[in-house]
Amino acid sequence: LSDKQHSVPAVAQQATKGISFPQLDGKGMRVGIVSTRWNAEVVNKLKDGARAGLKECQVEDSNVVEFEVPGSWELPLACRYMAQTQKVDAIIAIGVLVKGETDHYDMIKDAATDALMMLGLETGIPVLNGILGCHTMEQAEARATGDNNHGVWWGKTAIEMATLRATQM
Ligand code: DLZ
């Protein structure tokens, strides 16, 4: 076999737990992060993860735009405001919903995630669902820590989807 036939697609050496990514080049891309103040301690770790994922894809710090909102319910509308600026290649919405004793959790989780999906489909801008719906704070912590920090995947997924979009335009 020739060298060419031997060569494998550049698949993630940068894998975190559970998923691998192709080599991604986010140089020059602008990415929005919209996050909540509810459950800020875990949300901040996820945000750090997302920034780290973006950095691994060569996204410059100055090209990361951040909005903050009170809770996960507010995420879709704030993401829409950001999408309307037409100045971002992808948006990462980050929130943590912890199930309480009422139905509030289910209402917010389902409505917010559906709205984020619709926003992406309507605008064509990749909108990442970074809402963790957990039954306990410990579950959320575990998904915001070390090689299981889901924020890192969201950062890389944002660039992968923005790259895919760019190849379609
Ligand atoms: C009200 C509420 C509750 C009970 N729990 C959470 C939560 O766990 N995570 C979260 O992001 N937001 C929560 N909120 C706030 C709502 O998302 C929203 O801010 C309010 O209902 C006001 O619209």
Automatic annotation (TrEMBL):
Its EC number is 2.5.1.78. GO terms for molecular function: 6,7-dimethyl-8-ribityllumazine synthase activity. It comes from the Eukaryota. The keyword Metal-binding does not apply. GO terms for biological process: riboflavin biosynthetic process. One of its GO terms (cellular component) is riboflavin synthase complex. Keywords: Riboflavin biosynthesis, Signal, Transferase. It catalyses: (2S)-2-hydroxy-3-oxobutyl phosphate + 5-amino-6-(D-ribitylamino)uracil = 6,7-dimethyl-8-(1-D-ribityl)lumazine + phosphate + 2 H2O + H(+). The keyword NADP does not apply. Pathway: Cofactor biosynthesis; riboflavin biosynthesis; riboflavin from 2-hydroxy-3-oxobutyl phosphate and 5-amino-6-(D-ribitylamino)uracil: step 1/2. Catalyzes the formation of 6,7-dimethyl-8-ribityllumazine by condensation of 5-amino-6-(D-ribitylamino)uracil with 3,4-dihydroxy-2-butanone 4-phosphate. This is the penultimate step in the biosynthesis of riboflavin. Belongs to the DMRL synthase family. This is 6,7-dimethyl-8-ribityllumazine synthase. The chain holds residues 45 to 213 of 230 of the full protein.
